[in-house]
Amino acid sequence: MFDSFGKAEQLSWKVGITLVLPLAGYGIWLTEALFARPNPQWAFLLLVWTLGATLLAWGLTRGGAGRIFDRLDRHARSIAIGLMVIAAIVLIAVSVIQARYFAMSVYTEDTAYYSQVLW
Description:
- Helix content is 78%, strand content 0%.
- It has helices spanning 4-30, 40-61, 65-74, 76-102, 112-118.
């Protein structure tokens, strides 16, 4: 027979592991500092990302998943459309920046490709 204490202890152990896993990944990445100097900006961004993942895991293990998933389900269409618009704007911006600053001249495209196709 299972007692309620054993079940609660097992659940708290799983919650603890879930919360520590993102931080353990950050610790593993920081071992690079033993062999080379890590980039401080990337280290900070990775720490922020790890803390965000840890907070998300904490919220999901505390029973907040139902509210989060309900909100995502209610706004799924607008979220998808917004992400598509953002992706389109970013791709257009990258194309314009490439054409404006990284193109060598008007004739940067390889015209030999077209002649090979024609012949």
